[in-house]
From TrEMBL:
Domain of life: Bacteria
GO biological process, one term: defense response to bacterium
Protein name in the entry: Lysozyme
Organism whose genome encodes this protein: Rhodobacter capsulatus
Record's keyword terms, sorted: Antimicrobial, Bacteriolytic enzyme, Glycosidase, Host cytoplasm, Hydrolase, Membrane, Transmembrane, Transmembrane helix
Chemical reaction(s) catalysed: Hydrolysis of (1->4)-beta-linkages between N-acetylmuramic acid and N-acetyl-D-glucosamine residues in a peptidoglycan and between N-acetyl-D-glucosamine residues in chitodextrins
UniProt-listed Gene3D superfamilies: 1.10.530.40, PGBD-like superfamily/PGBD (1.10.101.10)
Pfam families per the UniProt record, alphabetical: PG_binding_1 (PF01471), Phage_lysozyme (PF00959)
Entries under InterPro entries matching the protein: Bacteriophage_GH24 (IPR051018), Endolysin_autolysin (IPR033907), Glyco_hydro_24 (IPR002196), Lysozyme-like_dom_sf (IPR023346), Lysozyme_dom_sf (IPR023347), Peptidoglycan-bd-like (IPR002477), PGBD-like_sf (IPR036365), PGBDSf (IPR036366)
Family from the record: Belongs to the glycosyl hydrolase 24 family.
MF terms in GO: lysozyme activity
Length: 309
């Protein structure tokens, strides 16, 4: 079987359809509906731009190559809407072959039993993620009822107001708005009245298409800013702790045991400083796009270079 046009549109609402290459939260170059080099159909690179039609063609190729054969194997005899639901699930999890809801579906066990097992696929990193909870519900509606999601259009579209182009719940939107405000982008906390100019400013600073739309590329880039801040904080604390051990300076709470030990082991001081330095350099390389964003205004050429490597 092949994924229907409605199935692909539902997939686009879940994954986003980004026509300019961007880094996913893990740092991999991505384009279209979440396609990386691992898809086998394209190798995204910095600055790459594709058309909407090219994105659809690549999605079709990825489905034909990676997903439709697997879903056909494990969901034989599926109706079109059931097949489309299986495709969305497998695109997200890559686990149609081991999902416990699939044998229940094959035995026609009933919607209630299938739904219980289907909803278990709502975790990331061992934690229940609200976004996955909501996605599973949308996929279930396709699977059980044949009802495909439709992104609600704003009642009064405005060029001055940013637009959400993914299926997100209030908690996810609030988290994004809070993070943007913390970074100095004054978007407020009303998800329906975010100034498009502030979103375009964030997008310009990060080498994204400045369209004022809050989609996958913008949210993935925002996540990298959040992750970079979280991972560089321990480096800063370790650096302060190492310096404090040699100078007797006051160090942040939680580092005293480490610094006391380092102070008692002179040989460890140099080693600790070296480890902190190497760790810091590795983080700087891993999040060079974040550094580029911070340099975008003061050193645009350097920022462009960092984004290109």
């Amino acid at each position: 079987m092949q994924t229907s046009d409605k199935g692909i549109e539902a997939l686009a609402l879940e994954e986003g359809d980004v026509l300019r290459a961007y880094r996913c939260p893990a740092g991999r170059w991505t384009i279209g509906m979440g396609l990386t080099a691992a898809s086998g159909v394209i190798k995204p690179r910095p600055g790459m731009v594709i058309t909407a039609q090219k994105s659809r063609d690549l999605t079709r190729k990825a489905l034909t190559r990676n997903y439709e054969p697997r879903v056909t194997t494990f969901m034989p005899g599926a109706k079109q809407h059931e097949f489309d639901a299986g495709i969305s699930f497998d695109w997200n999890t890559g686990a149609i072959h081991k999902a416990t809801w699939v044998p229940l579906w094959a035995r026609k066990a009933g919607a209630a039993a299938i739904s219980v097992k289907f909803r278990l696929w709502n975790k990331g990193g061992g934690k229940v993620l609200p976004g996955l909870v909501a996605r599973r519900e949308r996929e279930l509606r396709i699977l059980i009822e044949g009802m495909y999601p439709v992104l609600a259009e704003p009642s009064r579209p405005s060029v001055s107001t940013a637009r959400w182009v993914l299926q997100l719940d209030f908690a996810e939107k609030l988290a994004a708005m809070t993070a943007l405000n913390d970074l100095g982008y004054l978007v407020g906390l009303d998800s329906a009245a975010i100034p498009a100019a502030e979103i375009r400013r964030f997008q310009n600073d990060h080498g994204l298409t400045a369209d004022g739309k809050i989609g996958r590329a913008t949210l993935s880039t925002l996540q990298r800013r959040i992750d970079a801040a979280a991972k560089t904080k321990p480096v800063a604390l370790a650096a302060v702790g190492t310096a404090g051990a040699s100078s007797g300076a006051t160090v942040p709470p939680g580092t005293s045991e480490v610094t006391d030990w380092i102070a008692a082991q002179p040989w460890a001081m140099g080693a600790a400083a070296g480890v902190v330095g190497i760790w810091g350099l590795w983080l700087a390389w891993r999040y060079r796009d974040v550094i580029a964003a911070k340099l975008a205004t003061r050193a645009p050429r350097l920022a462009a270079f960092l984004r290109s490597i």
